[in-house]
Amino acid sequence: MLSLLILFLLSTPIIGSPLGDYEKELNKEGLNVENIHKLLKEESKEVEEEFGNEDSKAEIEKLRSLYASTCPANGTLRPVKTELEINGELAKDLFEGDIVLTPEQWKVALDKDPENPMQRRQALSQSIQLWQPMGAPVIPFTFEPGFPADKKQIIIDSQRFWEQRTCVRFRPATSADRAVVSYNHNSAGCSSSVGMSGTKQTINLAPGCFSVTVVAHELSHAFGTLHVQSRSDRDNYIIVDTANIQKGTEHNFMRDPPYYGTLSTYGIPYEIGSIFSIDTNRPTIYTKPAYSQYQYSMEAPRATFYDTLLINKMYKCTDKCQNRLACQNNGVQDGADCNKCFCPRGWSGQLCDRRPADAQIVNLSGSQNLRVEIGDGVDRGFREKLYIIQAPAGKRIEATVTRVGDYQWSMCRSIGMEIVASKDTRVAGFRFCANSRIKPIVTDSNTMLVWVYVDNAYKFNADLSLRIG
Ligand SMILES: [Zn+2]
What pLDDT does 75 receive? Predict the structure, then answer.
């Protein structure tokens, strides 16, 4: 009886768990799951060692107290779950928190020197396949049986999100297709394969994963992207606090080998505010002191300018364009349409030389309080509004955030405000979704952008105290 009970307890996580099915699939492909777990354990050890040395420990200690002193409304924040947290125990079998490796990718990793995690990483990264044809990739998609009809629109909207800004296209799969993305609602977490696996690959979506933010993020993994915090140059920007990581999932914070860097990043600068981050309620990642104002800005609600540029570069989206456009204000030729430019925030028009027609312009002549707001409590999906604050030429703008929202959120993923203080608006700004004690923000030109956004039926408002500096 006891042995039966033990057997039952041992097999419980496997039965009914999609990752149990995943482990079965790996077994079927001749992979020893135990070896995989051993490999992940080694990677976890590697992460602990990287951040466990005396220098890192001292820096983490400082960053913990800095976090405690600037942390908004401690203990009263409404928690926002990331994929890593939704995935919980499942993250133990995943790669970077929400990526499911294919049997072939595991084989590539296991064939490498078991003592050399960096070599394994490099082999894994190089095993990522892209969708074809280059320049105009098409991804056939389907839904797993029983996929809820009322959730399909979120999928279609997420696909359209990428179609509108890249050359990636989706079409319903036919029986002739081998490589297919299949949306699976019957899952315990949010996850995706990385790149094209060549057969049916699922994007797993548990109940907490149904938003354009999450689906578009998982889709980008299916395109072939990894997370920014695994970039080889990440140690210049962030530091990982392993004490706040769930035991056994530390390997998800492993760094890519340096020589792979330029291949995976396509020369795009490290962006703390990217959509490809895994921030959590208990900080697992601190921004380094020079970037401390970005602490609450990880995990963008929508792909940023650079996130989008990454996909367009990966798939050589603009290589086919016969014409060359003289894009202004850091715009680049649009991956979705050769006849226009893709504009950084605050710019619009064919050549990014105009302000967006729906932006609210605020001309600042002295000190002024400004309330920014969006949303009316009715579920209208994702809504956004841009305020462009302008001071006289040659002046700068200083903004103090005096109050944020009716509710306080732990992460600014579905609701919040982003302040862009640099003239170069390609870089994501500082996000706010709770009262904070972050020091005033000063622009490097006479313009400041304030972007407010809400998903679902939320309302958001904030008060800013502005002055010319
Ligand atoms: Zn991810």
Answer: 59
One domain, residues 368 and 297: no
156 located within any domain? yes
H/E element holding 84? helix 83-87
pLDDT for 298 beyond 90: no
Residues 32 and 171 in one domain: yes
Question: Of 299, 319, 339, which closes a domain?
Answer: 319
251 is in an annotated binding site: no
Check if the beta carbon of residue 202 is closer than 8 Å to that of residue 180. Answer: no
Q: With bands split at pLDDT 50, 70 and 90, how would you rate the model's confidence at 81? A: confident
- The pTM of the full predicted model, rounded to 2 decimals, is 0.90
What's the whole-number mean pLDDT along residues 283-292?
87
Distance 469 CA to ligand 1 centre (A): 40
Check 85, 218, 250, 299 and give the catalytic one.
Answer: 218
If you search the block for the tokens 């706040």, which residue do you land on? 244
User: What is the DSSP pairing of strand 190-193 with strand 169-172?
Assistant: unpaired
Q: Indicate the DSSP class of residue 361.
A: E
pLDDT 10s digits, 181-211: 999 999 888 999 999 999 999 999 999 899 9
Q: Could you give the number of structural domains in the chain?
A: 2
One domain, residues 366 and 299: no
Q: Is residue 127 part of a domain?
A: yes
In a domain, 352, yes or no: no
Distance CA 313, CA 330 (A): 16
Q: Any known ligand binding at 37?
A: no
* Active-site residue, 49 included: no
State whether 208 and 72 are in the same domain: yes
221 is annotated as contributing to ligand binding: yes
Query: Between residues 27 and 6, which one has the greater pLDDT?
Result: 27
- Residue 349 C-alpha to ligand 1 middle, in angstroms? 32
- CA 179, 184, 186, 189 dihedral sign is positive
Q: Tokens 């600014």 map to which residue?
A: 412
Q: How far is the CA of 214 from the centre of ligand 1 (A)?
A: 8
- DSSP, collapsed to helix, strand or coil, labels residue 68 as helix
Q: Which of 290, 319, 348 is a domain's end point?
A: 319
304 lies in the same domain as 421? no
Check if the beta carbon of residue 233 is closer than 8 Å to that of residue 26. no
| Judgement on whether residues 41 and 174 belong to the same structural domain of the protein | yes
- What does the pLDDT look like over 363-409, one tens digit per residue? 999 999 999 999 988 988 899 999 999 999 999 999 999 999 888 88
CA pair distance 225, 275, nearest whole angstrom: 11
In the reported structure, the alpha carbon of residue 53 is separated from the centroid of ligand 1 by a whole-number distance in angstroms of: 27
